[in-house]
Amino acid sequence: MQQYIDFFRTHRQQIDESCAPALNSFREKAFDVFRKTGFPPCPSEDYLHTDVAALLKDDFGFFLNPPGRTVDPHKAFRCNVVNLNAIKHFIVNGYLLETKDNAPLPQGVFSGSLHVFARQHPELFLKYYNRLAGQEEDGLAAFNTLFVQDGYVLYVPEHVILENTVQLTGISGGSSRSLINRRILVILEAGAQAKLLLCDHTSDEKSAPAVTQVVEVYAGENAHLDFYELEESAPEAVRLTGNYIRQAAASRMITNSITLSNGFTRNNYRIDLAGRQAETRLYGMAIADARQKIDTFTRINHLVPECRSSELFKYILDDEATGAFCGKIIVSPDAQRTEAYQNNRNLLGSRNCRMYSKPQLEIYADDVKCSHGMTTGQLDEAALFYMRSRGIPADEAALLLKFAFTSDVIQGIRLEGLRDRLKLLIEKRFRGELIKCQGCI
Amino acid sequence: MQIETEKQIMSDETNNLLNELTNKDYAYGFVTDIKTDFIPKGLNEEIVRLISAKKDEPEWLLDFRLKAYRYWLTLRMPEWAHLDIPSINYQDIIYYASPKTKETSRHPDEVDPELLKTFDKLGIPLHEQKMLSGMAIDAVMDSVSVKTTYKENLAEKGIIFCSFSEAVHDHPDLVKKYLGSVVSYRDNFFAALNSAVFSDGSFVFIPKGVRCPMDLSTYFRINARNTGQFERTLIVAEEDAYVSYLEGCTAPMRDENQLHAAIVEIVVLDRAEVKYSTVQNWYPGDKNGKGGIYNFVTKRGICKGESSKISWTQVETGSAVTWKYPSCILAGDNSIGEFYSVAVTNHFQQADTGTKMIHIGKNTRSRIVSKGISAGKSQNSYRGLVRINKGAENARNHSQCDSLLLSNTCGAHTFPYMDVQNETAIVEHEATTSKISEDQLFYCNQRGIPTEEAVGLIVNGYAKEVLNKLPMEFAVEAQKLLSVSLEGSVG
């Protein structure tokens, strides 16, 4: 931790130079918070299986100036999600590349670099940036705010519907071990609608970057947002994300996070349901083998009455993989008529994999319907036997069952093209045919 | 519109009814006026030595206490629980208080009539002629065991049932062998504290192949002011043995909080079974949250032998703060652990309770059924751990934790932890939280059952699964308690 404090002190000017003043104005406070809290302590209740300080203890390199555009996205990465009609952006080592070939956006919509947004719309930027992530003294979010230089912003004004999906492809890596900090800010004003797909990759199988990513989402009244995240990164990669979401009245949101391959991933979600009748659906799935580690922490705050949340996380673990899931649902005293459901289902495939699960309910209101369920087990012997007795080889039968196990998370995706592509990717993943980090083709 | 109004009236009625929950008084809050022998306040090595000397203990036990005390000094009180506990001044507690027997007693075994009266009043008659048939009782007041009934009859079968202090003198080898073998003094803050200052408690030993012919029971009573109760219970069931053990407790109503930090250890060998039932009714504090007992207990059993079984059943209605996790270590192959709990909190009571099931042996099974009922301004949490160790082939667990909310100012929380390290395990957990369903109430009303009775019916039905596991005598008491804790006419 000290190395980062020292680094910030000595490189402050360099960090600030290439950034908008509005972005720099948050660093001082973040510095104070980070100095005070450091990285989240481990083991602690919320960080039982992720030791952030240990993950980031190595001497990582920073891409300060010039921006780390060392990877040509079109060479490093190919994507072929059909029928997506996406507005495409690439975020390479934390910096958003300029893209010119996207179709014109509807009036008032901003889809581009954080750094540019901070310069062009400082008043909007100051209104939203770090308001959620900086709400609590969170060491990891403060660390990101301290060093972040660029990222992506999607701003959709009132009642504008962005038909096309935004596809944001993150590529991290390079020859040396680097620490990449990026930021995503999504602002949907009242009645706005958008779909965002974030594909996170490493530049190649050998690269070992550490990425911290903070996502802040503001969904205004009646706004609809679909936020899909797909991670396919290298075995040595570290990915630490914090997703802070605030939903106003009657807003709808789908969040779906899928990890197909990774090194060490920790995903935090905090969703504040702050307006009546807001609804959120949070899905997640991880397929992990070898020594992959995936740790998810979710906290859904029901702050006002009549909100709904449903949560489903599925893990399929094999070899020496470790999975952890901690889900909190907190229902505030006034949040009557809340409906909150949480589900965590896990499949263990080998002797050495481990699953830690901790679903939690904290309820301070009485007129609620809340439940959580958790199971950890293996494939159903009877179903396997049934299929084998009908001539399906054991491997194929197991694959079919595993595939079926993932289906309800996939069904939660509302983009047909992406759903089909994911089915294919998952099948390839189970067959061991997925060439990691080459792209989603 | 009319239906709406009717529903509103019904809902108001329910609320009124539930609000009345606060109006029932604690029935066991009297103080027995009896001379008590105190030691000075505070905790230091001298006090530990003094307690040991008062009990005329052998050197090894004093060493055990001192080791525990020194270790305790290195610890800080844990803060992770979902509880709001004011800081406890451990130097402000009297660690040993024993009711003085009147000097006029001619016979050493004769119990002071005042004490007999006290236990009579609590519904625990200790007179030979009035003793509850089919149940042997060890009555503990403050730091000492007052009397153990049916001791001789049990001894004929080789069963040892006596106070812990007696066991230290009469069966030192057994105590030495098993003391601290399940809950080490290094286990946690309160285990260390208890190991240093524990005063009395019960000792049960069921020899090989013996099925204990009656339920064994200990009744704990805190009477003296400013004291804490630190008892220790040790139960050993040898091969093929069986015992059903019950525990009950009450305390007087006082404005200050009193600490109860006990340890229960259970050792179960091959094919043996221990059924441990608790009806916990310590003084819960008044309607404004003043006073009450802090109940911080470490209870753990080990299924050492194959096919052994431990079953915990608890009905928790008392205490200002309850903080305990009766646990099972399932070390023997095919062993079984069970945990059934009803935890009721009202007024300003707080509870953070649940269980731990540690699966070590092959084909081990565990079942958890926890029913929380929160009312008033109370906070009720279930916290439980299910761990399947690497070698625990074919382990099976099912947990069910339900919470029922009876007011809009209370809280119900669930914090289950599941660590699975073996791929052949099947672990399932489910939890629900809701309030009494208006539909169920309406259904009862519609069939002529008044709301008051309907609430009782629903609450009792809700807790039935657990109450059914209690031995007959306790089930009746528990049902009564449930209604007392919740509301005069519920039940």
Q: Give the overall form of chain A.
A: globular
Question: Hey, roughly how much beta strand do the residues of chain A contain?
Answer: 35-45%
Instruction: Give the strand tally of chain B.
Output: 24
Q: Mean pLDDT of chain B, as a whole number?
A: 84
Please give a handful of descriptors for the protein shown.
heterodimer; A: 441 residues; alpha/beta; 10-stranded mixed β-sheet; 22 strands; 24% helix; B: 491 residues; 6-stranded parallel barrel; 11 helices; 24 strands; 33% strand; disordered C terminus
Write the layout of secondary structure elements.
The complex is a heterodimer of chains A (441) and B (491).
Chain A (H helix, E strand, L loop, with lengths): L1 H16 L3 H4 L2 H11 L14 H4 L5 E2 L10 H4 L1 E2 L7 E6 L2 E2 L13 E4 H7 L1 H7 L10 H9 L2 E7 L9 E7 L5 E11 L4 E10 L7 E10 L4 E9 L5 E10 L4 E10 L2 E10 L5 E10 L4 E10 L5 E10 L4 E10 L6 E11 L5 E10 L4 E10 L3 H9 L4 H18 L4 H16 L7 E2 L1
Parallel strand pairs in A: 1-8, 2-22, 3-7, 6-8, 7-9, 8-10, 9-11, 10-12, 11-13, 12-14, 13-15, 14-16, 15-17, 16-18, 17-19, 18-20, 19-21
Antiparallel strand pairs in A: 3-4, 5-6
Chain B lengths: L1 H18 L16 E3 L6 H10 L4 H15 L23 E3 L13 H9 L13 E7 L2 E5 L2 H6 L3 E4 H7 L1 H7 L10 H9 L4 E5 L8 E7 L10 E6 L4 E9 L6 E4 L2 E6 L4 E8 L11 E12 L5 E8 L4 E4 L2 E4 L5 E10 L4 E4 L2 E4 L5 E10 L4 E10 L7 E10 L5 E10 L5 E10 L2 H9 L4 H17 L4 H15 L5
Helix pairs in contact in B: 2-3, 3-8, 6-7, 9-10
Summarize the structure in words:
The complex is a heterodimer of chains A (441) and B (491). Chain A is an alpha/beta fold and 441 residues long. Chain A contains eleven helices and 22 strands. In chain A, the strands form three sheets. In chain A, strands 1, 5, 6, 8, 10, 12, 14, 16, 18 and 20 form a ten-stranded mixed beta sheet that branches. A ten-stranded mixed beta sheet of chain A has the order 4-3-7-9-11-13-15-17-19-21, with helices on one face. A two-stranded parallel ribbon of chain A has the order 2-22. In chain A, helix 6 packs across helix 7 and helix 10 packs antiparallel against helix 11. Chain B is α/β, with parallel strands linked by helices and 491 residues long. In chain B, 25% of the residues lie in helices and 33% in strands. In chain B, strands 4-3-7-9-12-14-17-20-22-24 form a ten-stranded mixed beta sheet, covered by helices on one side. In chain B, helix 2 packs antiparallel against helix 3, helix 3 packs antiparallel against helix 8 and helix 6 crosses helix 7. The C terminus of chain B is likely disordered. The interface between A and B is medium-sized, with 34 and 35 residues. Strand 21 of chain A pairs antiparallel with strand 24 of chain B.
